[in-house]
Amino acid sequence: MYGTLLPGSAAGQEFRLELVHRGQNTILASYPMQPDQEFVLHYIHSSDHTPVAARFKATAQGGIVLVEERFAWYGAGLAFHAQSDIDTSREWTAVRMHRDMDPFFLRVGRVADHALHIGNRSIALRDLAPGGTSLWIRLRPRGEPRHE
Question: Tell me: the pLDDT tens digits for 76-86?
């Protein structure tokens, strides 16, 4: 659905995308990110059992922004707002937006089979933590001491 996502060319600052176990306050995984670099979270909608892809972007200020959700079938909890840019002309509905995700908390699904795609990497979240685990997905400046 999305091709390889390449780093942006914003001014010099590098980040680490960290997946933090909220209950244990420990970093489970960390990946290099550049400003304007995108990553995608694929999952299966828990009640409709249909695929969803959420596309995010790292900001130059170290934030995370949700820029688009794509889904084959609209279900509870999916973005669909009259002021969003919505494209229903293809097989997948695309809802483009600019939603700040600070903080970005995500519970690893038991049904959702969450997979994070960063460039050519694919990370199954259930390989990092069992279903039901609450994660904090955050950006930290590269080289910053690990503050958990």
Answer: 445 555 555 76
Give yes or no for a contact between 48 and 75, defined as CB atoms under 8 angstroms apart: yes
Contact 139, 63 (CB under 8 A): yes
φ/ψ of residue 127, rounded to 5:
-80, -20
Q: Whole-model pTM above 0.70?
A: yes
- Written in H, E and C, the secondary structure of the chain is CCCCCCCCCCCCCCEEEEEEECCCCEEEEEEEECCCCEEEEEEECCCCCCEEEEEEEECCCCCEEEEEEEECCCCCCCCCCCCCEEECCCCCEEEEEEEECCCCEEECCCCCCCEEEECCEEEEHHHCCCCCCEEEEEEEECCCCCCC
CB 69 within 8 A of CB 50: no
pLDDT digits (tens, 9 = 90+) for 34-77: 999 999 999 997 767 788 899 999 999 999 999 988 887 655 44
Q: Where are the domains of the chain?
A: 15-141
Q: At CA 37, angle to CA 35 and CA 40, rounded to 5? A: 140
